[in-house]
Amino acid sequence: MKQFNDFLTLGIETSCDETGIGIFSENKGLIAHHLYSQIEMHKIYGGVVPELASRDHIKRVVGLIQQSLNQVNLKLSDINGIAYTAGPGLAGALLVGSSIARSLAWGLDIPALAIHHMEGHLLAPFLEDKKPKFPFLSLLVSGGHSMLIKVQKFGKYEILGESVDDAVGEAFDKTAKILGLGYPGGVVLEQLAKKGDKSKFEFPRPMAKKAGLNFSFSGLKTYAKNTFYDNPNNKADVACAFQEAALDSLVIKCKKALKQTGLKTLVIAGGVSANQRLRKKCQNLDVELFFPRLEFCTDNGAMIAYAGHQRLIKGQKDDTLEINIKPKWNLESLTKV
Ligand code: KG4
Ligand code: ZN
């Protein structure tokens, strides 16, 4: 049945190895979401194979949209706008989401809007009942990014610091691979670290004494590798020492950024925000803290539906029929809402 007096946004996420769909209603909030993870398929290769990722998104996306609509007894014709991840991410994978989104929008004669994947992550905590208030500091930590952002308002982002080399999630994944923990490594490394002895090894806290708010994680990964090769029987202790150092360096820079900006609210999002040890360490910060629920820390369609919805209801839309993607896309270039 047509949902009068409501605005329904369909969100489509296909930037990497997860096909995610969400439906956000102006009246009821998030009403449906479905996710298909390709982890099992990529596992045997030890990482994401881009071509396989694109092909799998093609296989899943239509079925997942249908499943999400069915969940709430809606038809495609009930949807008022479509938001899709246009970047950053893998070009082939992004093309799947943008093609289906733009084609559906054209066929249904409704607006479509390209969404920045990291804006989706940043806004994921707004899917919870208790929402952060602007302005706030955001720590965005995923497999592709580690950024500290001053969020003045929705759409106005100032990057205060970022990683000069590997993203923190990438360093977790690479270290996990070195330790023979498989892919994706972040969550497995966290589990193993729980069994480690914190006092066994003390790793350096990269960039801690350097001015500025940038991070660096690739040296830490090498430090873990060398320590493991010299101490092959101390796998859990190495995992623990790596995790402590990586997370401390995030917390150190958060503290610095909070002091520098005077902000009193900290929003942490992206895949690494699922890490329980990070959540624990942040409890000591003198701020109001916000995290997404665990399933919305990693990639999902709900966050894209939410971010897109906020823009679509204000009348923003892409004024082109072209199917274009932005595998590299600066968060600071986004428009305000
Ligand atoms: O946000 P996300 O799903 O994808 C990107 O946008 O990159 O983040 C995935 C990253 C991976 O590097 C994964 O290992 C890491 O988040 N991750 C974790 C944990 N869960 C996921 N890292 C540390 N601890 C975790 N519990
Ligand atoms: Zn992500």
UniProtKB/TrEMBL annotation:
Keyword Cytoplasm assigned to the entry: answer is yes
- As recorded in UniProt, its EC number(s) are 2.3.1.234
Reactions mediated catalytically:
L-threonylcarbamoyladenylate + adenosine(37) in tRNA = N(6)-L-threonylcarbamoyladenosine(37) in tRNA + AMP + H(+)
What UniProt keywords are attached to this protein's entry? Acyltransferase, Cytoplasm, Iron, Metal-binding, Transferase, tRNA processing
What the entry lists under CDD domains is as follows: ASKHA_NBD_TsaD_bac
* Cited InterPro entries: ATPase_NBD (IPR043129), Gcp-like_dom (IPR000905), KAE1/TsaD (IPR017861), Peptidase_M22_CS (IPR017860), TsaD (IPR022450)
Gene3D superfamilies given in the database record: 3.30.420.40
Every copy of the Gcp-like domain together lies at 30-306
Among the GO biological process terms of this entry, one is: tRNA threonylcarbamoyladenosine modification
Recall the GO molecular function terms of this protein's record.
Answer: metal ion binding; tRNA N(6)-L-threonylcarbamoyladenine synthase activity
Full protein name: N(6)-L-threonylcarbamoyladenine synthase
The protein's organism comes out as: hydrothermal vent metagenome
